[in-house]
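Researcher: Let's do a round of design. I'm pasting the C-alpha cells now; please hold your answer until I've finished.
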C-alpha cells in the first residue's frame, strides 16, 4: 500500500524556519516527481515546489522562490522542504505529492502556522 507521510509542521514566528519531511513507502519512487502543495483556509490547493526523479531539476511557485528549497533522498524515499523567511501568508496545510504521468499520490498533510 502506497503511503506518503509528512512530518515537521508546527507553529513558527514570521521570519523563522521549518523543515518538512515526507517518507514515501509502499513502492519505489525513483522515477516519480516528488513535491509539495499547500492549502490555506478557504483557498484551493496550490503548487509549492517539486523535484524531478534524478534530483537535478527543481520547480518553485513564484511566491516561495528564494525562500524554500526542495530536496530528495532517493535511497531513503524521502523528500524535504526547507522553508526559510516564513510569512503569515505561508500558513497552510502542506501536502506531499508523488507524480508519474497520470498517477498521483498524496499525503494527509501537515499544518504549518506562521504567526505575525
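Researcher: That's everything. Go ahead.
Model: Designed sequence:
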Amino acid at each position: 500500500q502506497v503511503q506518503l507521510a509528512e512530518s515537521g509542521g508546527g507553529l513558527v514566528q514570521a521570519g523563522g524556519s521549518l523543515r518538512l519531511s515526507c517518507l514515501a513507502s509502499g513502492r519505489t519512487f525513483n522515477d516519480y516527481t516528488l513535491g509539495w502543495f499547500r492549502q490555506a483556509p478557504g483557498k484551493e490547493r496550490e503548487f509549492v515546489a517539486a523535484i524531478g526523479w534524478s534530483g537535478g531539476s527543481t520547480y518553485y511557485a513564484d511566491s516561495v522562490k528564494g525562500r524554500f528549497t526542495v530536496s530528495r533522498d532517493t535511497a531513503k524515499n524521502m523528500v524535504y522542504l526547507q522553508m526559510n523567511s516564513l510569512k503569515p501568508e505561508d500558513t497552510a496545510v502542506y501536502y506531499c505529492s508523488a507524480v508519474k504521468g497520470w498517477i498521483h499520490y498524496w499525503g494527509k498533510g501537515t499544518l504549518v502556522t506562521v504567526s505575525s
